[in-house]
Design a protein that fits this description.
single chain; alpha+beta; 6-stranded antiparallel beta sheet; 3 helices; 6 strands; 40% strand; globular
Amino acid sequence: MRAPREAIFETAADLSRWPEILPHYRYIRYYERSPERNVVKMAAVRSGIPISWVSEQRIDRDRCEVRFHHLKAFTKGMEVLWTFEETADGVRVSIMHDLEFRVHALAPLADRIIGGFFIGHVAGRTLECMKQYLESRESREGPA
């Protein structure tokens, strides 16, 4: 992404703004809220299919990382890590998902459906929309 790393990080960390800037997010509901830790219900849509899950979000400004631990739904137990690496071409934002399916015999099928169809698509769309939002804001407002 071609925007200041801090602006990208803060946009990713501020879940309250996600439904405004990410058209596939329906809502974010806070159960607990603080500067470093939130518990939220996140709701998105994938090809017209509504999905939702509950996550604990941890914001680590010192390490410039945003972490999620999924607490409910099909992705219960999943760990998600957002990283923000400065490069010569801009900031490389990565989202890594680590999920071990609870029913091991169904893991190959679940990986394709939950991992590829839902998680991969929603994460990719999130990065795409966040990039578009931040880069258009950067071109309008200039460097922060």
